[in-house]
From TrEMBL, chain A:
<protein>
    <submittedName>
        <fullName>Peptide/nickel transport system permease protein</fullName>
    </submittedName>
</protein>
<dbReference type="Pfam" id="PF00528">
    <property type="entry name" value="BPD_transp_1"/>
</dbReference>
<keyword id="KW-1133">Transmembrane helix</keyword>
<dbReference type="InterPro" id="IPR035906">
    <property type="entry name" value="MetI-like_sf"/>
</dbReference>
<keyword id="KW-0472">Membrane</keyword>
<keyword id="KW-1003">Cell membrane</keyword>
<dbReference type="GO" id="GO:0055085">
    <property type="term" value="P:transmembrane transport"/>
</dbReference>
<feature type="transmembrane region" description="Helical">
    <location>
        <begin position="156"/>
        <end position="174"/>
    </location>
</feature>
<feature type="transmembrane region" description="Helical">
    <location>
        <begin position="46"/>
        <end position="66"/>
    </location>
</feature>
Automatic annotation (TrEMBL), chain B:
<dbReference type="InterPro" id="IPR003439">
    <property type="entry name" value="ABC_transporter-like_ATP-bd"/>
</dbReference>
<protein>
    <submittedName>
        <fullName>Oligopeptide transport system ATP-binding protein</fullName>
    </submittedName>
</protein>
<dbReference type="InterPro" id="IPR050319">
    <property type="entry name" value="ABC_transp_ATP-bind"/>
</dbReference>
<dbReference type="GO" id="GO:0055085">
    <property type="term" value="P:transmembrane transport"/>
</dbReference>
<dbReference type="Pfam" id="PF00005">
    <property type="entry name" value="ABC_tran"/>
</dbReference>
<dbReference type="InterPro" id="IPR027417">
    <property type="entry name" value="P-loop_NTPase"/>
</dbReference>
<dbReference type="GO" id="GO:0015833">
    <property type="term" value="P:peptide transport"/>
</dbReference>
<dbReference type="InterPro" id="IPR017871">
    <property type="entry name" value="ABC_transporter-like_CS"/>
</dbReference>
<keyword id="KW-0813">Transport</keyword>
Length: 329, 340
């Protein structure tokens, strides 16, 4: 092998960079800083992040400032309108209740603060549970051919179940034992999160399985196998980072579904106890008198939809920021 | 001949890789795609064995089956004295550092979510117990060895050109100091000028680290440049195996002749006088190969015997193997002698 291929002299010119150049002692930039830089270029995502932090602060720190008890009845001041109505008419308004009160005189702002805590906690916890189950089932089904049929039929089975009746049965069966074990609120919280989580992972599982089926035939997975990387690390190192985008999308959508399912349960009277407000329940309770008092539907509805929208945008920005091709490095 | 056999790093005997075909209501196995069918050859220590053939003849499958990226249907593969043909994948893991692979498409063979450093470090993470600093130093050395700037270590594959990506792939293959590297069309996806760079790099590395290559390609000129011996495959079988000079000057098998006549000739004067053998028809399906010789449907020198009896793969002159009835000696002598 003494004769060199043509262009042999070119090979020194076209070397990537100059390997003989001294390696500069430039400390490599933390990769998370690059992610943050890319995230910042997505205006919607940054605005949404600010909004989400604000709404979380509103629900967490709000009650410390606004010390009204959301459950306190005040029949004398019932059916107050929001303070904004003072602008166009002499209606029943009071600075003591800026968002108004409901038909029992409970302060709407305090209720939305208290309800936001529960709704956000239920939404986030149920979404995380659903994503974990869905991703796990999807990756296992996609990667191991042998389990594919079994797991996907299980997924179909769950999809075919009528969810609401199933949740109702779960509530009836497990409400009392959980209540006695964890206390009334904790018990219901666990029950609702588990109920929503294990009935909403199927779409994630299907999407992830489809992606894993395609990804595991890619050459870099073959390359990892030729190196001798065991399956579990092929999954964590090569497959999971590459199915991140669809997981992120279903996570943001899952949060919305979880909040809404919780409100549906509360509406049916099987969620949290009646004196325990959540966004969904405030909304559901106000539906009968919606024409007279639209703000009681609009305010919690707005809170739910803006939160979901914000999470969606953040998910979008995060997905772009985590993709090195878009990040342009 | 026997002495040389002892220095064979890789011995492949009767390698078979059949992919089952399932059909019908009950998904019963109704046949198999015989991608690699009874292939035998040796790769000597320090040599480059070229494996050529047209698309779909089983070259890549053969390369992957030798590294046991597939569970092979049958046969023996001995690498560095260990038979890995039937070894389980978990036992195989400890043997992986000896044998590595360079892939065809440098874009697809690098994980887009990993930095160059992480890609080259992966084999070290899997097989060594080095500290983080030692690994970083080793990655730097490897990047130097393949001519990549160390400062690019934190970048992602999409930021590199095709040739640079292939260097990353080569650095990853070199990380564990392998003895045997399967190069699966490493230059097919690259520009001609970059092809020369990569081939020269592979040659330099071979010299420096004493590597043994199985070089799979359909580029006959490039194989002529890099390979010491060349095996020609057709429809899952090796039809001819010979040292480079002899194969190019005096091809024996009709398929090899046709293949070589398709190589463009730079000199117009010679090109005009040269006869070009154009094969008729298509390659038969590997799921349903013809009876007798696999090449009998397209062979310009076909004889009645070719359509009945499969030719034996045998040594016709020392070091030259052909599977063709034209060269079949009457007896069955030497049938199972060493494959050099």
């Amino acid at each position: 092998m003494t004769n060199r291929a043509p262009h042999a002299d070119a090979d020194n010119l076209l070397v990537a960079g100059d390997p003989t150049a001294p390696v500069e002692a430039v400390k490599a930039r933390n990769q998370w800083l690059d992610v943050w830089d890319q995230f910042r270029t997505h205006k919607g995502a940054v605005a949404s992040l600010v909004f989400l932090i604000a709404i979380i602060l509103f629900t967490l720190a709000g009650p410390l400032v606004w010390r009204l008890d959301p459950a306190a009845l005040d029949i004398r001041n019932k059916d107050l309108r929001p303070i904004i109505n003072a602008l166009w008419g002499a209606e029943k308004v009071a600075w003591a209740h800026p968002f108004g009160t409901d038909n029992l005189g409970r302060d709407l702002m305090a209720q939305i603060m208290q309800g936001g805590r529960i709704s956000l906690a239920v939404g986030a916890a149920a979404m995380i549970l659903a994503i974990l189950i869905g991703t796990f089932v999807g990756v296992i089904a996609g990667y191991f051919n042998r389990l594919d049929g079994l797991l996907m039929r299980l997924t179909d089975l769950f999809l075919a179940l009528p969810l609401l009746p199933l949740l109702l049965v779960m509530m009836l069966l497990f409400r009392d034992p959980l209540r006695s074990a964890f206390g009334p609120e904790q018990g219901i919280f666990i029950l609702i999160v588990a109920g929503i989580g294990i009935t909403s992972w199927m779409h994630t599982a299907r999407i992830v399985r489809g992606d894993v089926l395609a990804l595991k035939e890619r050459e870099y997975v073959l390359a990892a196998r030729s190196i001798g990387t065991p399956s579990r690390r092929i999954i964590t190192r090569h497959l999971l980072p590459n199915v991140l985008s669809p997981i992120m999308v279903s996570a943001t959508l899952g949060l919305a579904t979880a909040i809404i399912t919780e409100s549906a349960l509360s509406f049916l009277g099987l969620g949290f106890p009646p004196d325990f407000p959540t966004w969904g329940k405030i909304l559901a309770d106000s539906v009968p008198r919606m024409t007279a008092f639209p703000e009681r539907v609009v305010l919690p509805g707005l809170a739910i939809s803006l939160t979901v929208l914000a999470v969606n945008y953040i998910g979008d920005g995060l997905r772009d920021a985590l993709d090195p091709r878009i990040r342009g490095l | 001949m026997l002495d040389q056999t002892n220095t064979a790093l890789v011995r492949v005997r009767d390698l078979q890789m059949h992919f089952p075909i399932y059909s019908g209501l009950l998904r019963r196995q109704t046949g198999a795609v015989k991608a690699v069918d009874s292939v035998s050859f040796d790769v000597m220590q320090g040599e480059t064995l070229g494996l050529v053939g047209e698309s779909g003849c089983g070259k890549s499958t053969c390369g992957r089956a030798i590294l046991r990226l597939y569970d092979i249907t049958g046969g023996e593969v001995t690498i560095d004295g260990t038979d890995i043909g039937q070894m389980s994948q978990s036992d195989l893991r400890t043997k992986r550092p000896t044998m590595q692979m360079v892939f065809q498409d440098p874009q697809a063979s690098l994980n887009p979510r990993m930095t160059v450093e992480a890609i080259i470090r992966e084999p070290l993470d899997e097989h060594t117990k080095l500290s983080a600093a030692e690994k970083e130093a080793k990655v730097g050395e490897l990047m130097d060895a393949v001519g990549l700037n160390r400062r690019f270590a934190k970048r992602y594959p999409h930021a590199f050109s095709g040739g640079q990506r292939q260097r990353i792939g080569i650095a990853r293959a070199l990380a564990l100091n392998p003895k045997f590297i399967v190069c699966d069309e490493p230059i097919a996806a690259l520009d001609v000028s970059i092809q020369a760079q990569v081939v020269n790099l592979l040659e330099d590395l071979q010299e420096k680290y004493g590597l043994t290559y199985l070089f799979i390609s359909h580029d006959l000129s490039m194989v002529r440049h890099i390979a010491t011996r060349i095996a020609v495959m057709y429809l899952g079988k090796i039809v001819e195996l010979a040292p480079r000079a002899e194969l190019y000057s005096d091809p024996l098998h009709p398929y090899t002749k046709a293949l070589l006549s398709a190589v463009p000739e730079p000199d117009p004067a010679i090109a005009q006088t040269r006869e070009r053998i154009v094969l008729q028809g298509d390659v038969p399906s590997p799921a349903n190969p013809p009876k007798g010789c696999n090449f009998c449907t397209r062979c310009p020198a076909v004889m009645p015997v070719c359509k009945d009896i499969e030719p034996t793969y045998q040594e016709v002159t020392p070091g030259r193997f052909v599977a063709c009835h034209l060269f079949e000696t009457t007896g069955t002598a030497e049938k199972t002698a060493g494959y050099i």
